[in-house]
Amino acid sequence: EQVILVDLDRAAEFEALARAPTLGAAWSFMRKTAFGASLPDVNWEHVHDAEQHIRHATALQFHRAIRRLRGRPATVATLLLSRWDLDNLQIALRTWRGRDVDQSRNGPVGHCAYKIPFDRIGNAQSIAEIVAALEGTPYAAPIAAASTEYEKNHSMFAIELSLEKDFYARLIDATTALGGADARDGMAILGAEIDLLNLAWIGRILRAPQAPGLEISDALIPGPSRFSRTLAACGESREQLSQASKDYVLRLAPHHDDTTSEFQRLTLIEHAVADAAEELARRQFERFPFGIACIYALYLLARLEMKNLISVFNGKAAGMRDSDILKRLYAMG
C-alpha cells in the first residue's frame, strides 16, 4: 500500500499557500491537497482552530502509514505517533494555565496513541488533579516530577520540559533496543529532531531571560548527536553557548558576518539542521529493502510538514509578508 504522507514538499506549493489572500483562502487551498479528507470545510476566524486541525491531519497521515505494522516496528511507530498526543497535552496545559482562554476554541482535536482526558484537565483545580487525571498514561510521572517547580514559579516551562525529556528518553531507549543498523539509522534521525528542539528551547530562554528557575542547561533534552553534546558542554554559560553558535555558523558559512545576534545565529543553525535532517530522512527511501528507519523518516518529514503549515497560518494571521513567511519555513529545497 502506498501512502502519500508529505504533499506540500515543493516551494511552489508553499508559495501558493503563503500568497492566499485570506486565512479562509489558504484553508481552501489546503483542502485540495492530500490532507483534504482530514480537514473540515469551514472558514476559520481564529488561527488556533486551523493549527489544531493541521496537527490532527498530519497525525492521521502518519497513522495511516503505520497502521499495518506489527512487532517491533509497530511498537516504535506507536511511540512516535504519541508525539502528537504530547503536543495536544501541552496545548491543554497552557490553556488550563491561562484560564482566560476559550477552551472550546483552542481544545485539542482527537486522540492518537493514548486517550487523554482533556475535559478533566480543563476542569482541574490543581496540578495534582491533572496528575490524577493522567494516571495510566506515560505523562503523569513527568508532570508530577515537575510539580514542585511549577508551584514555586507558576510557569509551564518546567512541566513542558519534563514531558519532553521523558518522551525522548523513552524513545531513545526503544530505538537503542532495536540494535544494529535499525538503531543506528533511527538514532541519527531522532538526534536531528532533538537538535531542533534544543535550539527551539534555547531560543525561548533567550527571548524570555526572565523565565524563573530556568538556565540554558535546564532547557536541553539529552540527545545522541555531536551537536547536542556540544550544547550540553556549554553548561549554564551563555558565553560558551555564544561561542559554540559562532563556531558552528562559521563552519556552515565561512564568510558569514560575525555581527549577527546570538538569536539570529541560532535561527541559522536551526534551519541548517532541518535541511540536513530532511535530506537524511529522504535518503532512507532510496534504500532497499526498506528498514525500520523509514518509519523514523516518515515521522520526521510529517513533523517538519506540520511545523511549516502552522508557520504559514501563524504568519498570515500576524499580517506578515509572503516572502517573510517563506523565510521561516524549514527544508524548502
Question: Could you describe the 3D structure shown?
Answer:
- The protein is mainly alpha-helical and 333 residues long.
- The chain is built from 15 helices and no strands.
- The protein is 66% helix and 0% strand.
In angstroms, what separates the terminal alpha carbons?
A: 27 Å
Report the β-strand fraction as a percent range: under 5%
Task: List the total number of helices.
Answer: 15
The parts where pLDDT drops under 50 for at least 5 residues are 1-7
- Major beta sheet summary: none
Q: What's the pLDDT, averaged over the residues?
A: 82
Rg is: 20 Å
Order of helical and strand elements: HHHHHHHHHHHHHHH
Shape: globular
Structural class of the secondary elements? Answer: mainly alpha
Number of strands: 0
User: What share of the residues lie within helices?
Assistant: 55-70%
List keywords for this structure.
disordered N terminus, 333 residues, mainly alpha, globular
Please sum up the structure shown.
The protein has 333 residues and is mainly α.
How are the elements arranged and paired?
Blueprint: H1 11-18, H2 23-30, H3 47-66, H4 71-98, H5 103-106, H6 118-123, H7 127-133, H8 140-153, H9 157-176, H10 180-207, H11 226-233, H12 238-252, H13 262-283, H14 293-317, H15 322-327
Helix pairs in contact: 3-4, 3-14, 4-9, 7-8, 8-9, 9-10, 10-13, 10-14, 12-13, 13-14
